[in-house]
């Protein structure tokens, strides 16, 4: 997938534990773990906003894009 989740990097920079963020944002540690690993197909903007608010960052600090040939195929599934 061309979208890369850098949440673990931001957690380390802010010295915040996953369970602390999950509790503050109102999601389960399991769901946060799935988000960190990039194994989710989507994230609610409200959840993304809450994470950014707590970590004092921008969405671009958490998400990145890596170009791949799959992007050019027009396929929405991977």
UniProtKB/TrEMBL annotation:
Membrane-spanning intervals of the chain: none
Domain HTH cro/C1-type: 20-62
SUPFAM superfamilies assigned: lambda repressor-like DNA-binding domains
UniProt xrefs under InterPro entries: Cro/C1-type_HTH, Lambda_DNA-bd_dom_sf
Matching CDD domains: HTH_XRE
PROSITE patterns hit by this protein: HTH_CROC1
Organism of derivation: Allosphingosinicella flava
GO MF annotation terms: DNA binding
The name this protein goes by in its record: Helix-turn-helix transcriptional regulator
